[in-house]
Design brief:
This protein has 455 residues and is α/β, with parallel strands linked by helices. The protein folds into 3 domains: 115 residues, Methylthiotransferase, N-terminal domain (Rossmann fold, 3-Layer(aba) Sandwich), CATH 3.40.50.12160; 236 residues, pyruvate-formate lyase- activating enzyme; 64 residues, OB fold (Dihydrolipoamide Acetyltransferase, E2P) (Beta Barrel), CATH 2.40.50.140. Helix content is 31%, strand content 22%. The chain contains 12 helices and 20 strands. The strands form 6 sheets. The chain has a 5-stranded parallel beta sheet, sandwiched between helices. It has a 5-stranded mixed beta barrel with strand order 16-17-18-20-19. Strands 6-9-12 form a 3-stranded parallel beta sheet. Helix 11 links the parallel strand 14 and strand 15. Helix 1 crosses helix 4. The longest helix has 24 residues. It is globular and about 60 Å long.
Length: 455
Amino acid sequence: MAGKVGFVSLGCPKALVDSEQILSRLRAEGYETAPSYAGAELVVVNTCGFITPAVEESLAAIGEALAENGKVIVTGCLGAKPEVIKAAHPQVLEVTGPGETEKVLEAVHQVVPPEANPFTRLIPPQVKLTPRHYAYLKIAEGCNHKCSFCIIPQLRGLQVSRDAAEVLFEATRLVGSGTKELLIIAQDTSAYGVDLRHRGSDYAGKEVRAHLVDLVRELSGLGAWLRLHYVYPYPHVRELIPLMAEGKLLPYLDVPLQHASPRVLRAMRRPGGAESHLETLQRWRSIAPDLAIRSTFIVGFPGETEEDFELLLEFLGEARLDRVGCFPYSEVEGAAANALPGQVPQEVKEERQARLMELQSRISLEKNLAKVGKELEVIVDSYGEWPGQVVGRSKYDAPGIDGLVYATTDGTVKIGDLIRVRITGAETYDLHGEMTGTIAWKPGIGNLASQTIRL
Protein backbone atom coordinates (compact mmCIF):
# COMPACT_ATOMS: atom_id res chain seq x y z
CA MET A 1 0.00 0.00 0.00
CA ALA A 2 1.43 3.37 -1.04
CA GLY A 3 0.12 5.35 1.92
CA LYS A 4 -2.75 7.49 3.18
CA VAL A 5 -3.44 11.02 1.94
CA GLY A 6 -5.83 13.50 3.54
CA PHE A 7 -7.77 15.81 1.23
CA VAL A 8 -9.56 19.13 1.75
CA SER A 9 -11.59 20.44 -1.20
CA LEU A 10 -12.80 24.05 -1.21
CA GLY A 11 -14.51 26.26 -3.77
CA CYS A 12 -16.91 25.79 -6.65
CA PRO A 13 -18.09 22.65 -8.48
CA LYS A 14 -15.32 23.15 -11.04
CA ALA A 15 -12.75 22.82 -8.25
CA LEU A 16 -14.64 19.77 -6.98
CA VAL A 17 -14.09 18.09 -10.35
CA ASP A 18 -10.37 18.87 -10.09
CA SER A 19 -10.35 17.23 -6.65
CA GLU A 20 -12.08 14.13 -8.06
CA GLN A 21 -9.43 13.86 -10.78
CA ILE A 22 -6.55 14.12 -8.30
CA LEU A 23 -8.11 11.58 -5.94
CA SER A 24 -8.82 9.19 -8.82
CA ARG A 25 -5.17 9.31 -9.89
CA LEU A 26 -3.98 8.80 -6.33
CA ARG A 27 -6.26 5.81 -5.86
CA ALA A 28 -5.02 4.32 -9.15
CA GLU A 29 -1.50 4.48 -7.71
CA GLY A 30 -2.55 2.62 -4.60
CA TYR A 31 -3.03 5.50 -2.18
CA GLU A 32 -5.89 5.50 0.31
CA THR A 33 -7.86 8.57 1.36
CA ALA A 34 -7.55 9.23 5.08
CA PRO A 35 -10.76 10.37 6.81
CA SER A 36 -8.90 12.50 9.37
CA TYR A 37 -5.75 14.56 9.73
CA ALA A 38 -4.39 12.13 12.29
CA GLY A 39 -4.63 9.17 9.94
CA ALA A 40 -2.96 10.90 6.99
CA GLU A 41 0.71 10.88 6.06
CA LEU A 42 0.21 14.24 4.36
CA VAL A 43 -2.71 16.50 3.39
CA VAL A 44 -3.60 18.06 0.02
CA VAL A 45 -5.66 21.27 0.20
CA ASN A 46 -7.46 22.30 -3.00
CA THR A 47 -8.06 26.03 -2.55
CA CYS A 48 -10.33 28.78 -3.85
CA GLY A 49 -8.99 32.25 -4.58
CA PHE A 50 -11.90 33.95 -6.32
CA ILE A 51 -12.82 36.60 -3.73
CA THR A 52 -11.25 37.81 -0.51
CA PRO A 53 -13.46 35.70 1.84
CA ALA A 54 -12.56 32.61 -0.22
CA VAL A 55 -8.86 33.43 0.08
CA GLU A 56 -9.25 33.82 3.83
CA GLU A 57 -11.10 30.50 4.10
CA SER A 58 -8.39 28.77 2.06
CA LEU A 59 -5.56 30.20 4.17
CA ALA A 60 -7.40 29.14 7.33
CA ALA A 61 -7.85 25.60 5.97
CA ILE A 62 -4.14 25.40 5.14
CA GLY A 63 -3.29 26.60 8.64
CA GLU A 64 -5.58 24.01 10.21
CA ALA A 65 -4.05 21.22 8.12
CA LEU A 66 -0.55 22.32 9.11
CA ALA A 67 -1.48 22.46 12.78
CA GLU A 68 -3.19 19.06 12.74
CA ASN A 69 -0.86 17.18 10.39
CA GLY A 70 2.23 19.23 9.54
CA LYS A 71 2.74 18.02 5.96
CA VAL A 72 0.66 20.00 3.47
CA ILE A 73 0.58 20.36 -0.32
CA VAL A 74 -1.53 23.21 -1.71
CA THR A 75 -3.22 23.30 -5.12
CA GLY A 76 -6.16 25.08 -6.78
CA CYS A 77 -6.91 28.67 -7.69
CA LEU A 78 -5.09 30.26 -4.76
CA GLY A 79 -2.13 28.10 -5.73
CA ALA A 80 -1.70 30.39 -8.73
CA LYS A 81 -0.43 32.92 -6.17
CA PRO A 82 2.26 30.95 -4.34
CA GLU A 83 3.69 34.10 -2.79
CA VAL A 84 0.41 34.68 -0.89
CA ILE A 85 0.43 31.13 0.47
CA LYS A 86 4.14 31.09 1.34
CA ALA A 87 3.87 34.45 3.10
CA ALA A 88 1.10 33.14 5.35
CA HIS A 89 2.33 29.55 5.68
CA PRO A 90 6.02 29.09 4.80
CA GLN A 91 5.89 25.50 6.11
CA VAL A 92 3.83 24.34 3.11
CA LEU A 93 5.73 21.64 1.21
CA GLU A 94 4.61 22.50 -2.32
CA VAL A 95 2.24 24.90 -4.08
CA THR A 96 0.67 24.11 -7.46
CA GLY A 97 -1.92 25.96 -9.51
CA PRO A 98 -5.39 24.92 -10.69
CA GLY A 99 -5.59 21.92 -12.99
CA GLU A 100 -1.99 20.87 -12.32
CA THR A 101 -2.77 17.27 -11.38
CA GLU A 102 0.63 15.94 -12.46
CA LYS A 103 2.48 18.41 -10.24
CA VAL A 104 0.30 17.46 -7.28
CA LEU A 105 1.10 13.79 -7.85
CA GLU A 106 4.83 14.54 -8.12
CA ALA A 107 4.69 16.45 -4.84
CA VAL A 108 2.85 13.58 -3.13
CA HIS A 109 5.43 11.10 -4.46
CA GLN A 110 8.22 13.12 -2.86
CA VAL A 111 6.66 12.75 0.59
CA VAL A 112 4.89 9.38 0.33
CA PRO A 113 6.37 7.27 -2.49
CA PRO A 114 3.93 5.28 -4.64
CA GLU A 115 3.89 1.51 -4.83
CA ALA A 116 6.86 -0.03 -6.61
CA ASN A 117 4.66 -1.33 -9.42
CA PRO A 118 1.22 0.32 -9.46
CA PHE A 119 0.47 -1.22 -12.88
CA THR A 120 -0.11 -4.57 -11.20
CA ARG A 121 -3.28 -3.08 -9.74
CA LEU A 122 -6.57 -2.87 -11.58
CA ILE A 123 -7.53 0.72 -12.28
CA PRO A 124 -10.26 1.57 -9.73
CA PRO A 125 -13.41 3.53 -10.49
CA GLN A 126 -13.17 7.31 -10.64
CA VAL A 127 -13.35 8.91 -7.21
CA LYS A 128 -16.47 11.05 -6.88
CA LEU A 129 -17.05 13.58 -4.13
CA THR A 130 -20.77 13.79 -4.89
CA PRO A 131 -23.41 11.14 -4.16
CA ARG A 132 -23.59 8.37 -6.75
CA HIS A 133 -26.79 9.67 -8.35
CA TYR A 134 -25.44 13.02 -9.57
CA ALA A 135 -22.13 14.25 -10.94
CA TYR A 136 -20.55 17.43 -12.25
CA LEU A 137 -19.42 17.16 -15.86
CA LYS A 138 -16.78 19.77 -16.70
CA ILE A 139 -16.65 20.54 -20.41
CA ALA A 140 -14.06 23.34 -20.45
CA GLU A 141 -11.45 25.04 -18.30
CA GLY A 142 -10.52 28.72 -18.11
CA CYS A 143 -12.32 31.84 -19.34
CA ASN A 144 -11.94 34.37 -22.17
CA HIS A 145 -13.88 37.17 -20.47
CA LYS A 146 -12.20 40.18 -18.90
CA CYS A 147 -14.70 41.07 -16.16
CA SER A 148 -13.19 43.82 -14.04
CA PHE A 149 -14.09 42.14 -10.73
CA CYS A 150 -12.65 38.73 -11.61
CA ILE A 151 -9.21 37.14 -11.99
CA ILE A 152 -10.26 33.68 -13.19
CA PRO A 153 -8.36 34.09 -16.51
CA GLN A 154 -5.23 34.87 -14.48
CA LEU A 155 -5.78 31.85 -12.24
CA ARG A 156 -7.03 29.26 -14.73
CA GLY A 157 -6.01 30.70 -18.10
CA LEU A 158 -8.03 31.26 -21.25
CA GLN A 159 -10.76 28.82 -22.19
CA VAL A 160 -9.70 25.32 -23.21
CA SER A 161 -12.60 23.07 -24.25
CA ARG A 162 -12.65 19.28 -24.22
CA ASP A 163 -13.48 17.42 -27.41
CA ALA A 164 -17.14 16.44 -27.53
CA ALA A 165 -16.28 12.73 -27.76
CA GLU A 166 -14.18 12.92 -24.59
CA VAL A 167 -17.07 14.55 -22.72
CA LEU A 168 -19.56 12.03 -24.08
CA PHE A 169 -17.41 9.02 -23.15
CA GLU A 170 -17.13 10.32 -19.58
CA ALA A 171 -20.87 10.99 -19.40
CA THR A 172 -21.62 7.51 -20.75
CA ARG A 173 -19.43 5.93 -18.11
CA LEU A 174 -21.06 7.99 -15.34
CA VAL A 175 -24.61 7.17 -16.43
CA GLY A 176 -23.66 3.53 -16.87
CA SER A 177 -22.51 3.45 -13.24
CA GLY A 178 -25.78 4.88 -11.91
CA THR A 179 -25.53 8.67 -12.30
CA LYS A 180 -29.03 10.03 -12.94
CA GLU A 181 -28.23 13.75 -13.06
CA LEU A 182 -25.38 15.42 -14.95
CA LEU A 183 -24.58 19.01 -14.01
CA ILE A 184 -22.73 20.55 -16.93
CA ILE A 185 -20.18 23.14 -15.85
CA ALA A 186 -17.40 25.40 -17.13
CA GLN A 187 -16.42 28.98 -16.42
CA ASP A 188 -18.55 29.91 -19.45
CA THR A 189 -20.57 26.88 -20.49
CA SER A 190 -22.23 28.59 -23.44
CA ALA A 191 -18.83 29.38 -25.04
CA TYR A 192 -17.97 25.69 -25.14
CA GLY A 193 -15.99 24.76 -28.24
CA VAL A 194 -15.21 28.30 -29.43
CA ASP A 195 -11.48 27.74 -28.90
CA LEU A 196 -11.72 24.50 -30.89
CA ARG A 197 -13.59 26.28 -33.69
CA HIS A 198 -16.32 23.74 -32.94
CA ARG A 199 -14.34 20.90 -34.51
CA GLY A 200 -15.92 17.48 -34.55
CA SER A 201 -14.73 14.27 -32.90
CA ASP A 202 -15.86 10.67 -33.26
CA TYR A 203 -18.30 9.25 -30.72
CA ALA A 204 -20.00 5.87 -31.25
CA GLY A 205 -19.34 5.97 -34.98
CA LYS A 206 -20.47 9.51 -35.71
CA GLU A 207 -18.90 12.95 -35.60
CA VAL A 208 -20.11 15.34 -32.89
CA ARG A 209 -19.21 19.03 -32.97
CA ALA A 210 -17.73 20.74 -29.94
CA HIS A 211 -20.72 23.06 -29.66
CA LEU A 212 -23.00 23.30 -26.64
CA VAL A 213 -26.21 22.68 -28.58
CA ASP A 214 -24.78 19.62 -30.36
CA LEU A 215 -23.28 18.30 -27.12
CA VAL A 216 -26.56 18.63 -25.22
CA ARG A 217 -28.46 16.87 -28.00
CA GLU A 218 -26.11 13.90 -27.73
CA LEU A 219 -26.08 13.90 -23.93
CA SER A 220 -29.88 13.90 -23.85
CA GLY A 221 -29.84 10.41 -25.34
CA LEU A 222 -28.25 9.02 -22.17
CA GLY A 223 -31.49 9.36 -20.23
CA ALA A 224 -30.08 11.34 -17.29
CA TRP A 225 -31.28 14.70 -16.07
CA LEU A 226 -29.13 17.39 -17.73
CA ARG A 227 -28.65 20.68 -15.88
CA LEU A 228 -26.74 23.65 -17.30
CA HIS A 229 -24.72 26.00 -15.10
CA TYR A 230 -22.80 29.24 -15.81
CA VAL A 231 -24.61 30.04 -19.07
CA TYR A 232 -24.04 33.44 -20.64
CA PRO A 233 -27.11 34.66 -22.57
CA TYR A 234 -25.53 34.38 -26.03
CA PRO A 235 -27.91 34.28 -29.03
CA HIS A 236 -27.32 30.56 -29.67
CA VAL A 237 -28.61 29.70 -26.17
CA ARG A 238 -32.12 30.12 -27.56
CA GLU A 239 -31.51 26.91 -29.53
CA LEU A 240 -31.37 25.04 -26.21
CA ILE A 241 -34.79 26.16 -25.02
CA PRO A 242 -36.80 23.91 -27.38
CA LEU A 243 -34.83 20.95 -25.98
CA MET A 244 -36.28 21.88 -22.58
CA ALA A 245 -39.78 21.99 -24.00
CA GLU A 246 -39.16 18.51 -25.47
CA GLY A 247 -37.97 17.14 -22.11
CA LYS A 248 -34.41 16.51 -23.31
CA LEU A 249 -32.85 19.16 -21.05
CA LEU A 250 -34.00 20.25 -17.61
CA PRO A 251 -35.97 23.53 -17.68
CA TYR A 252 -33.27 25.25 -15.66
CA LEU A 253 -30.60 27.80 -16.54
CA ASP A 254 -27.96 29.28 -14.27
CA VAL A 255 -27.24 32.67 -15.88
CA PRO A 256 -24.82 35.00 -14.02
CA LEU A 257 -26.29 38.40 -14.95
CA GLN A 258 -24.44 40.28 -12.12
CA HIS A 259 -26.43 43.55 -12.46
CA ALA A 260 -29.10 45.34 -14.47
CA SER A 261 -27.75 48.89 -14.67
CA PRO A 262 -26.00 49.43 -18.04
CA ARG A 263 -23.60 51.85 -16.37
CA VAL A 264 -22.56 49.35 -13.69
CA LEU A 265 -22.35 46.53 -16.23
CA ARG A 266 -20.01 48.60 -18.38
CA ALA A 267 -17.79 49.16 -15.35
CA MET A 268 -17.89 45.41 -14.74
CA ARG A 269 -17.03 44.82 -18.42
CA ARG A 270 -20.19 42.80 -18.76
CA PRO A 271 -22.75 42.90 -21.58
CA GLY A 272 -26.41 43.83 -21.49
CA GLY A 273 -28.72 45.77 -19.24
CA ALA A 274 -32.20 45.53 -17.76
CA GLU A 275 -34.02 45.93 -21.07
CA SER A 276 -31.98 43.38 -23.01
CA HIS A 277 -32.05 40.95 -20.07
CA LEU A 278 -35.84 41.13 -19.89
CA GLU A 279 -36.24 40.64 -23.65
CA THR A 280 -34.04 37.54 -23.51
CA LEU A 281 -35.96 36.07 -20.57
CA GLN A 282 -39.27 36.73 -22.29
CA ARG A 283 -38.13 34.92 -25.46
CA TRP A 284 -36.95 31.91 -23.48
CA ARG A 285 -40.11 31.70 -21.39
CA SER A 286 -42.33 31.95 -24.46
CA ILE A 287 -40.86 28.62 -25.62
CA ALA A 288 -40.48 26.91 -22.21
CA PRO A 289 -42.97 28.54 -19.80
CA ASP A 290 -41.83 26.44 -16.82
CA LEU A 291 -38.17 27.44 -17.25
CA ALA A 292 -36.51 28.14 -13.89
CA ILE A 293 -33.79 30.77 -14.04
CA ARG A 294 -31.09 31.18 -11.40
CA SER A 295 -28.80 34.18 -11.36
CA THR A 296 -26.26 35.93 -9.17
CA PHE A 297 -25.82 39.64 -8.58
CA ILE A 298 -23.15 41.88 -7.09
CA VAL A 299 -24.25 44.91 -5.08
CA GLY A 300 -22.05 47.75 -3.90
CA PHE A 301 -19.81 47.59 -6.96
CA PRO A 302 -17.53 50.65 -7.19
CA GLY A 303 -19.54 53.57 -8.50
CA GLU A 304 -22.93 51.93 -7.91
CA THR A 305 -25.38 54.68 -6.98
CA GLU A 306 -28.73 54.37 -5.26
CA GLU A 307 -30.29 54.96 -8.68
CA ASP A 308 -28.32 52.03 -10.13
CA PHE A 309 -29.42 49.83 -7.26
CA GLU A 310 -33.07 50.85 -7.61
CA LEU A 311 -32.84 49.91 -11.29
CA LEU A 312 -31.62 46.47 -10.23
CA LEU A 313 -34.55 46.09 -7.83
CA GLU A 314 -36.96 47.19 -10.53
CA PHE A 315 -35.46 44.62 -12.90
CA LEU A 316 -35.84 41.82 -10.34
CA GLY A 317 -39.45 42.81 -9.75
CA GLU A 318 -40.17 42.47 -13.47
CA ALA A 319 -37.95 39.47 -14.20
CA ARG A 320 -39.27 37.40 -11.29
CA LEU A 321 -36.31 35.06 -11.34
CA ASP A 322 -36.74 31.72 -9.62
CA ARG A 323 -33.42 31.51 -7.77
CA VAL A 324 -31.13 34.41 -6.85
CA GLY A 325 -27.82 34.75 -5.07
CA CYS A 326 -26.56 38.17 -4.04
CA PHE A 327 -23.09 39.13 -2.86
CA PRO A 328 -21.69 42.43 -1.63
CA TYR A 329 -18.76 43.48 -3.79
CA SER A 330 -15.44 42.31 -2.41
CA GLU A 331 -12.04 43.31 -3.73
CA VAL A 332 -9.99 40.57 -5.36
CA GLU A 333 -6.26 41.04 -5.44
CA GLY A 334 -5.22 41.74 -9.03
CA ALA A 335 -8.70 42.67 -10.29
CA ALA A 336 -9.10 45.83 -12.38
CA ALA A 337 -12.15 46.92 -10.36
CA ASN A 338 -9.94 47.63 -7.35
CA ALA A 339 -8.76 50.84 -9.01
CA LEU A 340 -12.23 52.12 -9.88
CA PRO A 341 -13.44 55.29 -8.16
CA GLY A 342 -16.53 55.44 -5.97
CA GLN A 343 -15.87 52.60 -3.55
CA VAL A 344 -19.12 51.88 -1.66
CA PRO A 345 -19.01 51.71 2.17
CA GLN A 346 -19.39 48.21 3.60
CA GLU A 347 -22.53 49.09 5.55
CA VAL A 348 -24.18 50.33 2.34
CA LYS A 349 -23.24 47.12 0.53
CA GLU A 350 -24.77 45.00 3.28
CA GLU A 351 -27.90 47.14 3.43
CA ARG A 352 -28.40 46.79 -0.32
CA GLN A 353 -27.82 43.06 -0.15
CA ALA A 354 -30.50 42.77 2.56
CA ARG A 355 -32.99 44.84 0.54
CA LEU A 356 -32.42 42.80 -2.58
CA MET A 357 -32.83 39.48 -0.79
CA GLU A 358 -35.95 40.72 0.97
CA LEU A 359 -37.52 41.44 -2.41
CA GLN A 360 -36.36 38.17 -3.90
CA SER A 361 -37.56 36.15 -0.91
CA ARG A 362 -41.08 37.49 -1.50
CA ILE A 363 -40.86 36.50 -5.17
CA SER A 364 -39.53 33.06 -4.26
CA LEU A 365 -42.33 32.46 -1.76
CA GLU A 366 -44.98 33.50 -4.28
CA LYS A 367 -43.52 31.14 -6.87
CA ASN A 368 -43.37 28.28 -4.37
CA LEU A 369 -46.94 28.85 -3.20
CA ALA A 370 -48.05 28.53 -6.83
CA LYS A 371 -46.65 24.98 -6.80
CA VAL A 372 -48.97 23.81 -3.99
CA GLY A 373 -51.32 21.17 -5.35
CA LYS A 374 -49.06 20.36 -8.28
CA GLU A 375 -47.12 17.16 -8.81
CA LEU A 376 -43.36 17.38 -9.31
CA GLU A 377 -40.67 14.92 -10.27
CA VAL A 378 -38.11 14.73 -7.46
CA ILE A 379 -34.70 13.10 -7.18
CA VAL A 380 -33.99 11.85 -3.64
CA ASP A 381 -30.76 13.15 -2.08
CA SER A 382 -31.07 11.99 1.53
CA TYR A 383 -33.36 10.62 4.23
CA GLY A 384 -35.32 12.99 6.45
CA GLU A 385 -35.58 13.34 10.21
CA TRP A 386 -38.33 10.78 10.72
CA PRO A 387 -39.15 7.36 9.22
CA GLY A 388 -40.49 7.54 5.69
CA GLN A 389 -39.41 11.13 5.07
CA VAL A 390 -36.96 11.85 2.26
CA VAL A 391 -35.28 15.06 1.11
CA GLY A 392 -34.80 15.73 -2.57
CA ARG A 393 -34.87 18.27 -5.35
CA SER A 394 -37.19 19.03 -8.22
CA LYS A 395 -36.05 19.69 -11.78
CA TYR A 396 -35.96 23.36 -10.84
CA ASP A 397 -33.34 22.97 -8.09
CA ALA A 398 -29.60 22.32 -8.28
CA PRO A 399 -27.78 20.62 -5.39
CA GLY A 400 -26.20 22.78 -2.73
CA ILE A 401 -27.56 26.14 -3.91
CA ASP A 402 -31.31 25.83 -4.45
CA GLY A 403 -34.35 24.69 -2.51
CA LEU A 404 -35.30 21.25 -1.22
CA VAL A 405 -38.42 19.11 -1.33
CA TYR A 406 -39.35 17.30 1.91
CA ALA A 407 -41.62 14.37 1.10
CA THR A 408 -43.41 11.71 3.12
CA THR A 409 -43.16 8.26 1.50
CA ASP A 410 -44.08 4.64 2.14
CA GLY A 411 -40.59 3.98 3.49
CA THR A 412 -39.33 1.99 0.51
CA VAL A 413 -37.63 4.88 -1.29
CA LYS A 414 -33.85 4.86 -1.61
CA ILE A 415 -31.34 7.66 -2.10
CA GLY A 416 -31.05 8.36 -5.82
CA ASP A 417 -34.60 7.26 -6.63
CA LEU A 418 -36.86 9.39 -8.81
CA ILE A 419 -40.32 9.87 -7.35
CA ARG A 420 -43.47 11.90 -7.94
CA VAL A 421 -44.48 14.27 -5.16
CA ARG A 422 -47.72 16.20 -4.72
CA ILE A 423 -46.84 19.53 -3.11
CA THR A 424 -48.86 20.29 0.02
CA GLY A 425 -46.92 23.17 1.57
CA ALA A 426 -44.44 25.88 0.68
CA GLU A 427 -41.79 27.99 2.37
CA THR A 428 -39.62 30.73 0.91
CA TYR A 429 -37.16 28.29 -0.62
CA ASP A 430 -38.33 24.76 0.26
CA LEU A 431 -41.39 22.66 -0.51
CA HIS A 432 -43.26 19.93 1.37
CA GLY A 433 -45.31 17.12 -0.11
CA GLU A 434 -46.44 13.52 -0.31
CA MET A 435 -45.11 10.85 -2.64
CA THR A 436 -47.68 9.72 -5.19
CA GLY A 437 -45.52 7.27 -7.11
CA THR A 438 -42.10 6.24 -8.32
CA ILE A 439 -40.48 6.87 -11.70
CA ALA A 440 -38.76 3.99 -13.46
CA TRP A 441 -35.32 4.94 -14.75
CA LYS A 442 -33.16 3.13 -17.24
CA PRO A 443 -29.99 4.64 -18.72
CA GLY A 444 -30.33 5.26 -22.44
CA ILE A 445 -26.76 4.24 -23.20
CA GLY A 446 -27.52 1.46 -25.65
CA ASN A 447 -25.27 -1.54 -25.89
CA LEU A 448 -22.23 -0.52 -23.86
CA ALA A 449 -20.39 -3.63 -24.92
CA SER A 450 -20.28 -2.31 -28.48
CA GLN A 451 -18.69 1.00 -27.49
CA THR A 452 -15.17 1.84 -26.45
CA ILE A 453 -15.42 3.54 -23.07
CA ARG A 454 -12.46 5.75 -22.24
CA LEU A 455 -11.44 5.75 -18.58
